[in-house]
Design goal:
Elements lengths: L5 H18 L13 H5 L11 H12 L21 H13 L10 H18 L6 E5 L2 H16 L4 H4 L7 E6 L4 H9 L7 E4 L1 E2 L4 E2 L1 H13 L3 E8 L11 H10 L3 E5 L24 E4 L1 H5 L6 E5 L2 H8 L30 H35 L4 E8 L2 E6 L7 H15 L5 E5 L2 E7 L7 H18 L2
Helix pairs in contact: 4-13, 5-13, 6-8, 6-12, 9-10, 13-15, 14-15
């Protein structure tokens, strides 16, 4: 294929994408292929000669698509949605076409300066104060790793990168049991070690960290000659939407000089709605905050917004500038590769620009508010059913429940069977988690084009299949 053939195929792919998004709700949500089915349909050896695009596209439809779980399905209620709003897809099409490598200001000034502006638009949308500056990371995992490396360096007086960790006083980082596993990985990669990630007990309906238990843990470590380095808080945890009491926990961390990071990967998008900001009251005292516009806000994966109070701490931790990466003759520029772990960087800001301009903040707020309201409506209806119990109340659009028919034992097995049967049915997609050791079923609404009817259909599917299981 050459560029003379590109335009007709571009139009064909655009038509295919439009039809896909308009009809995806007619498909089963989850892929139905068996392990190895796609692999075995692909030739074991690469072709020696070029093949016609007709054959390639036919194989895409016949081999690839049956093995795709439809994250853009309006009844995808599992995990957190990885959305792809239409303007975001168009922006990514353009980025793919021009394919810039945006590691430095000089390698594409427009990408760097648009990133600066888009991150400030998001800062304003969230209601964060002026001192915060932002960078677009590929994922919340990378942002959290950058924050953990920064808290490590600050605690070691900037000697960790140069001297390593052997011989240093062991560092301690504090988080609840509800944080994402990306925190564990960040602790591993930073060399701090799993045993030095201290799990602080939780309490209350929000399943948030106990501030007094946090202070007790810090003081105990100090008494033992260890070095408290950082605190990682959770706002909208993956399992149940768990949310730490931000203001109270940050006050404890500040008292002991800890670097603080807030993981709001999913729920941070909701903070464009002022009525939800009480969930992270006190956030302005944090050192680092991350949320993912590629989840609930509608931007296409990957696009993670990382805000820091003092960019110099992040740059001091991550920047390295050999001569070939220096930009001479330009003052006051930002090289965002010095704010990130990878050197290479995609032009991610363009899709935010398209997305925010196409819908406006109020258009985005309306979608989020609808998701929360519809999820609450489903919660209320299922709560009234005698064979179901609500385990954790709605946090934004996420809550958990359990099937508890009166005469049943072995409820964990029964509920896992219910999840499996629902997902095999194909009309909706749910996942399970555990709350205080018990297996429960998660429900969350967040797909960009979902409707109230899509959400309420979940009640019919859940109750119908539950009844079938107990007959």
């Amino acid at each position: 294929m050459n560029w003379n053939d590109f335009a007709p195929w571009g139009r064909r792919v655009a038509d295919w994408a439009q039809e896909y998004h308009q009809t995806v709700g007619d498909k089963p949500v989850r892929a139905r292929t068996r392990p190895g089915e796609v692999l075995n349909a692909l030739p074991a050896a690469p072709p020696e000669g070029g093949e016609d695009m007709e054959a390639i596209f036919a194989d895409f439809e016949n081999i690839v698509m049956p093995g795709i779980t439809h994250w853009q399905h309006p009844r995808f209620f599992a995990y957190f949605n990885s959305n792809a709003a239409a303007p975001s897809v168009l922006a990514e099409f353009l980025v793919s076409a021009i394919s810039p490598q945006c590691m430095l200001w000089q390698t594409s000034p427009a990408a760097t300066e648009m990133e600066t502006r888009m991150m400030d638009w998001l800062r304003q949308a969230l209601g964060l104060p002026d001192p915060f500056a932002g960078v677009i990371q590929d994922s919340a995992s990378s942002a959290t790793l950058a924050a953990v490396l920064t808290m490590r360096e600050k605690a070691l007086n900037w000697k960790g990168n140069s001297e390593g960790l052997p011989g240093q006083t062991p560092l301690r980082v504090y988080a609840s049991s509800e944080v994402h596993t990306s925190i564990d990985r960040a602790i591993w990669i930073a060399g701090i070690g799993q045993d030095n990630l201290i799990r602080v007990p939780i309490k209350g309906e929000w399943r948030g960290m106990d501030p007094q238990a946090l202070e007790n843990a810090i003081q105990s470590d100090l008494d033992a000659g260890l070095k408290p380095a950082g605190l990682i808080l959770c706002v909208g945890g993956t399992g149940t939407g768990a949310t730490d009491p931000v203001r109270e926990c940050l006050a404890v961390a500040k008292k002991y000089g800890l670097y603080t990071h807030i993981d709001a990967a999913w729920a941070g998008s909701a903070m464009i709605c002022p009525e939800f900001r009480h969930y992270w009251e006190g956030v302005e005292e944090a050192d680092s905050i991350v949320f993912n516009p590629h989840k609930w806000l509608g931007a296409q994966f990957d696009c993670s917004a990382h805000f820091v109070r003092d960019p110099e701490d992040l740059v001091k931790t991550l920047a390295i500038s050999p001569e070939y990466l220096k930009t001479h003759g330009a003052e006051g520029i930002i090289n965002y590769s010095e704010w990130s772990i990878p050197l290479g960087r995609r032009f991610r800001a363009l899709k935010l620009w398209f997305l925010i301009r196409a819908y406006g903040l109020e258009g985005l707020r309306e979608r989020l508010r609808n998701h929360v309201a519809w999820s609450q409506k489903l919660h209320d209806k299922l709560a009234a059913h005698p064979d179901f119990e609500i385990v954790t109340k709605p946090m934004w659009s996420l809550w958990t429940f359990r099937f508890v028919p009166n005469s049943s034992t072995g409820l964990d097995v029964l509920n896992q069977n219910l999840v499996n049967e629902i997902n095999d049915d194909g009309r909706i997609y749910l996942t399970q988690t555990r709350v205080d050791g018990a297996l429960v079923i998660r429900f969350q609404t967040g797909q960009f084009e979902t409707t109230e009817d899509d959400v309420m259909m979940a009640y019919d599917v859940i109750t119908e299949i539950a009844e079938r299981l107990t007959q």
